[in-house]
Amino acid sequence: MRFAFFQGCKIPFYLESYGRSSRAVLQALGVELVDLEFNCCGYPVRHLRSDSFLLAAARNLALAEQQQVGIVTPCKCCFGSLKHAEFRLRRHEGARNQVNRSLREEGLRWQGRVVVKHLLSVLLEDVGLEKIASRVKRRYRRLGVAAHYGCHALRPGEVVGFDNPLAPSVFEQLIAATGAHPLEWSARLECCGAPLWEKNNPLSLRLATRKLVDAERAGAVFICTACTYCQIHLEAAQAKSLAAGSRPSVPSPVEYTRLLGLALGIDPEPLGMAGTTGGPQTVRATLTKG
């Protein structure tokens, strides 16, 4: 298995540990990762300049196509953005021709031959649950985990093709492979509020806090993410709740790659967990007790 690793813009500056843990887990499970000179996925300008968005996304697709590799990304916003571009390029000849004229300057061309997958899909479909379970060295016990799906990988379903947008199960299957117990909770498919940040901050934080409280009521120790934006935003909401003292027991947001990485026996340092506090440290302590 060989994929180009698309980490997006946020990970290197705001959530470097997610990139490190994603690489560590994929490589431990036999996925070869290739680094290409990717640019932004185009998501920040998608609703401002559709032509700029499409060209930015298409350049990434064309780079991977030139190297004859698929793309794997741990960020659901990046995944959704690249899938939106792919969907439009396949259906609109005019947009496709305009993009390819611009790409020609770099010797690139989009022909629709590259596969774009989110990290969770690669783990489930390419690696497989059986292989993951066979590689788990230390299974979690009595650990309630709330899977937070995020919006961009699920909707629109006909564009992203990630899972059933109304009844997804990918995340729960992968959580269960570690021995943890995926919980049923009413807010699991709701938005975390990140798209509203810097537009309506109080509402954005209320949405995130509501998710944390709902996961807490369901018995979650962790709310598990697989998206850069969601993890950053839920961490901010949890910090606000803890600082206010209003919800001292809200679950810690943690990236799935850290949860899986420790279960696979990967050292904390490659997972970005050496010397950390909060959620990551709680994961380590929980596994040790298990």
Verbal overview:
It is globular, with a radius of gyration of 19 Å. With 290 residues, it is of the alpha/beta class. The chain starts with a strand and ends with a helix. It folds into two domains: 118 residues, Glutathione S-transferase Yfyf (Class Pi), Chain A, domain 2 (Up-down Bundle), CATH 1.20.1050; 153 residues, Rossmann fold. Helices cover 49% and strands 10% of the residues. The protein is built from 13 helices and eight strands.
- Number of helices in the DSSP assignment: 13
Number of strands: 8
Helix content: 40-55%
Looking at the overall shape, the CATH architecture of the largest domain is 3-Layer(aba) Sandwich
The CATH topology of the largest domain turns out to be Rossmann fold
Counting structural domains, the number is 2
Largest sheet: 4 strands, parallel
